[in-house]
Design brief:
Two copies of one chain form a homodimer.
Chain A lengths: L5 E7 L3 E8 L5 E8 L27 H19 L6 E8 L4 E4 L29 H13 L17 H11 L1 H6 L2 E4 H10 L6 H7 L11 H7 L6 H5 L10 E4 L2 H7 L6 E3 L2 E2 H8 L7 E6 L3 E7 L10 E4 L7 E7 L3 H10 L3 H10 L3 H10 L9 E3 L16 E6 L5 H25 L6 E5 L2 H4 L1 H11 L3 E4 L4 H14 L9 H8 L2 E6 L3 H22 L5 H12 L7
Parallel strand pairs in A: 1-4, 4-9, 10-16, 16-17
Antiparallel strand pairs in A: 1-2, 2-3, 5-6, 7-8, 10-11, 11-13, 12-13, 14-15, 17-18
Helix pairs in contact in A: 2-3, 10-17, 12-13, 13-14, 14-16, 16-19, 17-18
């Protein structure tokens, strides 16, 4: 391989965006730059001057200008840091959280950027973890079940409140004037590619996983949408598009405007947008069935490839060509993982652990991990349900909540921390069991994302609980690397890239030497604990009139007099 | 009333002992002195030089020399502080936690004071909250049920692991040589009176509530004890006594030795020992049926008087003359209340609350209470089962544990704190419901103990959850006041005291002007939440094979390789 074939991948996350500059020959990451969104996650009040507008507890928005600031800050930074000439960059690709969606005008201007709508919460991008559209998701599911919609089975029988049409329908329900003003409803991923190329495209990954589209059947019918709400009948034709581009293809070329913004050359190939989780699979070396990829960060996302279409309980979805062309890509997820650990460290760890972290010049998570690692499996006497952020698979219910049982006066902070780590591992095992029950083997696992390198105890617990070997992707930033790999594919071999993602993965993706093997004596204890986890899981998760639902209803009633966005 | 009739009450608590000097005329508390036990609660390791001897998690011991140090430090201190002449003290009485029991030689020397036994955990006094005798309690209950023992119904069908014979049987099971060495097995309350008078007496309150004794039937039969374990057949005759003295009578006169220790005059009347909770009822003005007394501190104890014998599910016990002569005294309890709040504040409140407390020069509980008070009922979305220390009534099961449900990433420290306050109120309501189901009316409530004055939010929540008016005893130290009232009764009117506890209560006990009325809108929300509490209570508490039990078994198995006392 000759010198001078580089690709840029930009990963748009929950709190920040990051760019990586990658050598197309071997995937070497030459430079990385991160931009922490200036408005972060907007979940309490709108940004100034509308900070008197309060949001309900389940809301989560972002600022689209943070996406542009990410491009403006990070791409020039990686070029500069690596000392690479823009002429040697053969492509740029992006990945995004999903479903993160926004309403725009016909020319792509986000509605929240219009003066008269800036104070309207529904004019802003709804982040993936915006969970306020559960009533709409319930309606979407009920109407689909009643009409026996064929697409429902692909999503495990239920779609999530996080998805595209639940969010769209919430806008219509609660702010019909915003819905009317929206010429376009679009995934943020596609919106950013639009800003890069000047051309509106729609990618098959978000369409397939989050908008009930499939290669064979397209979107649900207009009749279905009309049954949901007559005003929704033409939503696809009027506000979206039926032309869906495959990931691994080229969306267009970098516009002059975007070239000025990024420091790249106009005309650089731009890949069709992708999703952070899905793009991670090839970046974690996985392009074949049998190996599950778990992207572990604030939440967990599970990707498994299959030769055939199978129906798995409560899966997020299965999309043909959704991850790797020619295979069915299955997705499952856990809505809270690192988020829960962070919540615990911030709100439930007593001062002594923070003091210890300060004294040692380290992070409180490191102290908690060290202390939790001293405990034997089962020793805490605790068990948790990891639903602080709802349950994405297999129950698909954002109204579920966390549970912790077994506390005594002798319970200490590291006990609870360990129980939370274990709970997320049990949650992963439920998903593996669901895959295997549907005939999709999970023989081993590759982990990637932010957590595996930071928390070795967590990895060992996952191996022990699932009874499977866990490998770890070499890259600490698989989404950005994956986006760069897709950029190399968008460029194609003619420009020094690759003609398929399988080939790009073979050259550019690597595993770390760290692997975690299940330990027999731990497995035995965790088998017993998992039985109890499943008992609680079914008790609290499968009872439609359960305690968690009632608590949420009582909480909503108690808040009726509160100012609501 | 003439000047110069004083009584001393000494209250032996969990962490400290306290003496109060009281004016017999009106109950005025002239001086108080507290001695924090130098060895506190012994629950991790024995005191030096045996601190290499580790205790299992459920153990809790005390040092009998801390009881003597209490007498030596506090009684002279109150005399000095009040400037009262020992000649004007007409009596001394004590109350104690119960069942706190110890093995001694024939002359009353605690076995743990013998050099050769000081390193043996079973030689030490077992504190009320020693919870390691659950297997023994299970056996006691099973054998009693099988034999249809008539006394079982008086204790709601189940005795607790905290009680006298469960603890005695644990000594026999685990350290038969200590059991053999014990000439006497005795309540710490009676042991202290023995040290004061030189005469071994046994009080009817601990015998009735904690040792299955009744005025009409005495102790369980020797045949029953033999069925439990042949070596236990003669336990009452050989190591205890069948002569049981009534509270409100005189145990004896202060010995020369005890006079030297306390600074009181030899010959001062000494009351028969009493129990902290029971002695609090008359000290809280309650000597008639209908008003429940709740002693709120580390744990809650509930006392209710009745004209007749009724059988109430899971009651701690009913003892004729046990609280007030001529009435049946019913006792129920919650094993963890203030203990749980303290656990939470110490281990689960993040630094910002501790920092705020420091800045304001106050206690972290004050900050948590203030913040929790800003929340509306139901607003937290949380619900807890208050079983961190097991459940004493109505489930009578020390193996139960805490539960918290409803957490989301938006859950904050004051939310959880409030949920824990509420959980203990729901626990009290379960007990009230059990009393009322058995035909014992609870029309209103008088609270006493350490918590009511410290936490007004807690009192309001209790009123709202129970739907009953809560008054508060004027004295902040009702046990010590009650002990002093019994001292005045031991002296009798001839010496300037009283001839009955009812009369003493009328003169010496008072209510605070603070009362708490249930608020309608709160009651409505709490009715809904209580329904969910009862659902969880029955789900986790009434299933013998429940998750909490299994977690405890798994924890015990995980600890098998650990050094165990």
């Amino acid at each position: 391989m000759s010198v001078g074939r580089y690709a840029v991948g930009v990963d748009f996350g929950t709190q920040s965006g990051r760019a990586v500059l990658v050598d197309c020959a071997d995937g070497r990451e030459l430079a990385t730059a991160v931009y922490p969104y200036s408005n972060g996650v907007i979940d309490e009040r709108l940004p100034e001057p509308y900070d008197h507008v309060l949001l309900e507890p389940d809301w989560a928005l972002q600022d689209p200008d943070d996406y542009l600031r990410t491009l403006r800050q990070t791409v020039p930074a990686v070029l500069a840091e690596a000392g690479v000439d823009a002429a040697d960059v053969i492509g740029i690709g992006i990945d995004f959280t999903s479903c993160t969606m926004l309403p725009t005008t016909a020319d792509g201007t986000p509605l929240c950027r219009l003066d008269e709508l800036r104070g309207e919460p529904h004019a802003w991008p709804k982040l993936w973890k915006h969970h306020a559209a559960q009533p709409e998701a319930d309606r979407i599911n009920a109407v689909a079940a009643e009409r026996r919609e064929p697409w429902l089975a692909r999503y495990g029988g239920k779609i999530s409140s996080e998805w595209f049409f639940a969010k769209a329908l919430q806008i219509l329900d609660e702010a019909p004037e915003i819905f009317d003003r929206a010429d376009r409803l679009i995934e943020a991923a596609d919106w950013v590619v639009w800003q890069l190329t000047g051309i509106e495209t729609r990618n098959n990954c978000t369409a397939g996983y989050k908008a009930m589209w499939s290669k064979r059947d397209g979107f649900p019918t207009n009749e279905y949408f009309a049954a949901l709400d007559p005003r929704l009948e033409q939503v696809v034709d009027e506000k979206m598009s039926r032309s869906i581009a495959s990931s691994g293809t080229r969306a267009g070329l970098l516009s002059e405007l975007a070239a000025a913004m990024t420091g790249l050359r106009a005309g650089t190939p731009v890949a069709v947008a992708n999703v952070d989780a899905h793009v991670s699979a090839p970046a974690a070396t996985v392009t074949q069935p049998g190996t599950m990829v778990v992207i572990m960060g604030t939440s967990n996302c599970h990707i498994l490839l299959g030769d055939e279409l199978a129906f798995v309980e409560g899966m997020c979805g299965v999309v043909e060509d959704g991850v790797v062309p020619g295979l069915f890509g299955y997705e499952a997820g856990q809505s809270g993982v690192g988020d829960i650990f962070a919540w615990f460290a911030e709100h439930s760890a007593s001062p002594e652990y923070h003091d210890a972290a300060r004294r040692r010049g380290t992070d409180v998570h490191r102290i908690l991990e060290e202390e939790a690692a001293k405990l034997r499996p089962g020793e805490t006497g605790l068990l948790a349900l990891d639903w602080w952020n709802g349950n994405r698979s297999v129950l698909v219910d954002a109204d579920l909540s966390g549970l912790l049982v077994g506390m005594t006066l002798a319970t200490r902070v590291p006990d609870v921390y360990r129980a939370l780590l274990e709970a997320t591992a049990f949650g992963t095992r439920v998903i593996i069991d669901a895959f295997e029950s549907a005939g999709l083997a999970v023989t081993n696992i590759v982990a990637c994302g932010g957590l595996p390198a930071r928390n070795k105890l967590l990895m060992q617990i996952y191996a022990d609980v699932t009874g499977r070997e866990f490998s770890v992707a070499a890259s600490a930033q698989t989404p950005a690397l994956g986006a760069a790999m897709f950029a190399a594919v968008a460029a194609g071999s003619a420009l020094g890239g690759y003609d398929s993602i399988v080939e790009a993965s073979r050259q550019m993706a690597h595993l770390s030497p760290d692997t975690y093997q299940p330990i027999d004596s731990h497995q035995a204890v965790y088998r017993d604990l998992y039985r109890e986890y499943v008992r609680l899981h079914d008790l609290f998760g499968r009872d439609g009139e359960g305690v968690m639902k009632t608590l949420r209803q009582i909480r909503h009633r108690s808040g009726e007099e509160v100012p609501i966005a």
